[in-house]
Amino acid sequence: MSTEIDRLLENANDAYYKNDYDTAVRLFEEILKKDSGHVASLQKLAKIENTRGNKSKACEYYERSLAIQPEDANTLNDLGNLWFDLHEWDKAEEKYKKAIEVQKDYYWAYFNIGLCLRQKYPGDREKNAQARKWFEKTIALNADYYPAYNEIGLQHLDRDELDSADEVFQKAIKICPSYKYPYFNCALIEKKRGNIIKSRQYLLKAIELDPDYVPALNNLGILAYDEKDYDSAFAYYARALERDPKYLFALYNMGLAFTSSEEYKKAHQMFLRALEVDPTYAPALEEKARLERDFEYELSNQTGLTDSDFKSKSYNKNAESIGKREHIREQKDQIGESTTQETGERPAETELYTEKFGRNITALARKGKLFDVLGRDREIRSVMEVLLKIKKNNPLIIGRAGVGKTAIVEGIASRIAEGKVPPFFKDKEILEINMGMLVAGTQFRGDFEKRLQRIIDEVAGNDKIILFIDEIHTVLGAGETTDSSLDAANIMKPALARGDLRMIGATTTEEYNKHFIKDQAFQRRFYPVHIDELDMDSTLAILKSLKPRMMDHYHLSIDDSLLSLIVNLANDEIKNRVFPDKAIDILENSCSRSSFDGKDKLDELTVKGIVGEFIGAKFLEAEKDKGQSLLGLESFLKERVYGQDAAIEKVAKIVRLTK
User: Fold this and answer.
1) pLDDT for residue 319 is more than 90
2) Domain check: are 526 and 549 in the same one?
3) Is 88 within the bounds of a domain?
4) What is the Cα–Cα distance from 569 to 565, expressed in whole angstroms?
5) How far from each other are the two terminal CA atoms of the chain, in whole angstroms?
6) Cβ atoms within 10 A of the Cβ of 446, count?
7) What pTM did the predictor assign?
8) Is residue 485 part of a domain?
9) Handedness of CA 217, 218, 219, 222 (dihedral sign)
10) Domain shared by 516 and 565, yes or no
11) Mind listing the pLDDT tens digit for each residue in 202-260?
12) Looking at the domain assignment, is residue 283 inside a domain?
């Protein structure tokens, strides 16, 4: 029997090391039929199932092995690692401690207990202090165990103790120069210090050690994006996604880069892909909603994503800085030393730091990239009057979704660009802050606060800037972490109270009542300006102003009578949305449908078809048809609903009254 088992074991191990797992499993199971206590077979089966991703089944094999050999520290540690991967922290910690009981100097288990505490209690300072003691015990047992130094360095980095973190990461690098993680972490430190060249050097070194290291590729993309080198950013994000197509942060960051390149449809599709990975990822949800609200025209008409957008080589021709950055790999001796060439890499910035995280609406108005704002003279004047005040000079625009809150701010920017404003506004620049872009790339506590504080300092020192934050209720909680209640609103409050900032906010009535008024201190800094739905005449004027651009883009002729029809139908049939938004949507969808169908003229049938799709019903051709249908409504319903004649008659009467 022993000879037969030895032969099977030799063949099973041979299949195992050739990665022929099916054969190996069959042979190991055959051994277990002959000897159910064959520990080596149980352990190999556990490793195979772990490799296949069947971690629960792997745990079962290890448990069977420990039932036979309970004093095996290696198996206890391996089982603990499986429970760790399954996020069963208590079970993992139990196995690691048993491994230590079996073998007091088993330093891997000490290290793993520290990791358990870090994962189980993120942000808990007391537990993190306990975790550090376990890491220090690990080093006491093995002074060259570099992963422990890396974890201690991360704890320093979490507390923004950059010098201490750097010192510990350098120890890890000295012990094991081929260990990629401390290089990546040193890159984060240098970015916090503002040493972009050194940050990039560390990231490139990490990629040299592991060309498939996705977080490093993603962070190189972030550095390029911050410099507005979008082709280089695209190249790095694409390289990350070539290796991991579901890497959430690269998907989201690529969407931001497409937004900054004004390729809004591609950006929207990237955010959708990010949400397929994590449907709850708030930055992607916010950016998706913003694009759908502000760039509906572009989403309908721009070109979407193609295969080449995900191929890094597609960007290399224009991403000239990629070559420069790759050359830094030849300067490995500079890593860890002071760099004297930093001042030579980038030209002096003429752009405001604030503009990196949004758009200059006044500059867009000067370039003629904004639509005309009609019918909102009173509201524009109200907002400007608030801005002109000495105290409480921060207007908060409140209104239902679709009434045109952002358009009012764009109207102010257009007047500034045209010089049709009081002297106070002549040199003003309205800068919109995008909270999603501001949060992007802030991986550690303190990153977001530093960005926002730098913006506040820049604006406070420049009385020409007026900030605009759309969906301003999102600042209540932006940047908040599990161990910090410091959100964007709390950072802004002191500057708003001192009058250092002039800021325009915009939010819906629902969000204002739900979130904004809960923070009384923040609410007091703003003066509310309520915006009502636009009337039908003003909406018609807007459609007429859009008509030339629609005709030119869709190559259609459009009669003014159809514009009036659109306004009337939107008013009569679409009750859950507001002017001008619903009328603009009908016009654009109708034009898009006509152009797609090869028509050269917009017609009434197409418009009514689009309205019917909006309300989820077939549109009747004439008022006579509608009247006849309403007269027969009771009979129609009674044929389908039994025993409710009285209720049907009441409902039918109310429907006829509303029509």
Assistant:
1) no
2) no
3) no
4) 6
5) 92
6) 17
7) 0.59
8) yes
9) positive
10) no
11) 999 999 989 999 999 999 999 999 988 999 999 999 999 999 999 999 999 999 999 99
12) yes
